[in-house]
Every structure is written in C-alpha cells, then in structure tokens.
Design a protein that fits this description.
By secondary structure, the chain is α/β, with parallel strands linked by helices. The protein has a single domain, classed as Rossmann fold. It is about 40% helix and about 20% strand. The chain has 9 helices and 9 strands. The protein has a 9-stranded mixed β-sheet, sandwiched between helices. The longest helix has 21 residues, at about 175-195. The N and C termini lie far apart (about 40 Å).
Length: about 270
C-alpha cells in the first residue's frame, strides 16, 4: 500500500513504509478509541454533534473537510462514514499516529505532515479553502498566543459560510467547584478501570506502540519530535475560546455541545 503524504507542495511516497499486512489498522484504531474513551465517555456523541454542525452548512453537498491535529484519523473516518463522497485532508505531526491513520484511511484521505505550532503549516495543505475544519481534544497543547493566531489562520482556510468546530476540555467559568468535582469523579472512575485492566492508560498505550515492530521506529521519531513530551496542557474556560474566535474575525461564534467540563465551540466564517 502506498499512502499519499504531502509536505509543502511536494507529493512523496508513504510515511508509513509498510504493507497493510504489517500493521492491523482496525485493531490499533479500536485500541486508541478505547484508551480515549476512558477520558471521554461521551466521545462519540461529541463527534456526532460536530458532524451535525458540518451538515448544517453544506446544503446537501459533499464537504471538503480538514481534520486538524487528526491523529489516528478518528474524525476523518467518521466523516467518511457519514459523508462517503467527502474530500478529507488530515493534518498531524506525530509519525506513529499518522501511520495508523494512513493505513486506516487507505487512500480515502490526503495525509499531511505539518506542525501547527508554526504559521507555515498551511503551505502543506493540498487546497486553499475548506467547507469545514474539525478538531477534538488536541489544541490544548498549544500556548495561548499560538492558539489565538491559529484561530485567525483557520478563518482564512475556510470558505465564506464555512465552519470550524473545536471540542476540548473547556470548563464553564461559572461552575468552578462543580467542575472540580466532576473532574475528580471522572479521574476516580478512570483509575478504577485502569486498575481492573478494562482499558489501557495513555502511557500504557504508548508502551504497546513502542513494542510493536512496525510502530516502534515511528514512536522513536515521535520522541525525537517531542523530547520532553508535549507542552503542558492549557485548558482555558469556554469564554476564552469564544472571545479568541470573535477576535479572529468569525461572524458567528458559540457553543454547540457541552458535557461536564468539556465543550465544543463552533465558529462560522
């Protein structure tokens, strides 16, 4: 299998460098989904809500969609299941997650390697304009100034009337004590599942990936990219995101989904 990877304007052969028989993408996708659902029990509901918002701006057309910081392709796969004729671009920097995404998507999406921490990431895109940009539980790794700038860059990537949706940890400003209790309860339930072996933790998942013969060299590349891990998580309240999106020039900005301390904010150009 030869997956397409775009770096700048140059198309090169697969980042993965493997046949489909050396990596079982469905097994790794399932493993990743279960690991993520330990943190986000309502993960599928939030993703479905994001796609509902995309559907609302399409007028029946297949979307051209950008899966931002797309990791293993969670959003891309669900987009293609709902909109089979969608034109999807997935952007990420992590070589191990991109390998799983490329194998899972099997040529149904364009896979792009780019660093969202730099303003030049847009030069790697195969299109200048998209109907929708979706991202979930990813942008909290960016510092405030960079995320604010990225929001402005995303506005320029969207067509007029296009939509951006970001689902992440976004606490409600007016419920600080309740939010703390919700997070504590969630942590306790998650730790109980780890202790019972019901699901892998984040660190355990990456240990499994590092032990896999196919993924091991890509995990090593990941460590070289992130030698100290990602930057510390930064989870401002939902009001910060709404203000930053308004400052970026979006016409409509609001919250389309909330689950406890998490939310999905939408912005329409």
């Amino acid at each position: 299998m030869c997956n397409k990877v775009w770096t700048g304007a140059v198309q090169v052969t697969s980042l993965i460098g493997m046949s489909p028989y050396t990596l079982d993408p469905s097994a790794w996708q399932e493993s990743w989904d279960r690991q993520q659902e330990a943190y986000l029990p309502d993960r599928e509901h939030r993703l479905a809500t994001m796609l509902d918002a995309v559907d609302a701006v399409l007028d029946g057309r297949p979307p051209r969609l950008l899966d931002l910081a797309g990791g293993t392709g969670t959003i891309s796969l669900r987009t293609l299941a709902r909109f089979p004729d969608a034109e999807v671009t997935l952007v990420d920097l992590d070589p191990a997650l991109l390998a799983i995404a490329g194998a899972s998507l099997a040529g149904r999406a364009t896979i792009v390697t780019a660093d969202l921490a730099t303003a030049g990431w847009r030069s790697a895109l195969p299109h200048s304009e998209y109907d929708a940009v979706l991202t979930a539980t990813a942008l909290h790794w960016l510092p405030a100034d960079r995320l604010r700038a990225l929001y402005a860059e995303l506005r320029d990537v969207l067509r007029p009337g296009g939509i951006f949706v970001n689902a992440d940890h976004m606490p409600d400003d007016t419920l600080p004590e309740l939010t703390k209790r919700l997070l504590d309860r969630s942590r306790d339930r998650r730790n109980a599942r780890y202790a019972a072996g019901a699901v892998l933790s984040w660190s355990d998942w990456w240990e499994r990936a590092a032990a896999d013969p196919t993924l091991a060299p890509l995990v090593a590349q990941r460590h070289a990219i992130y030698p100290t891990g990602h930057s510390p998580e930064w989870n401002p309240p939902v009001s910060w995101h709404l203000a930053a999106l308004t400052e970026a020039g979006f016409g409509e900005v609001g919250t389309v989904w909330r689950g406890g301390p998490d939310a999905a904010v939408a912005a329409v150009r």
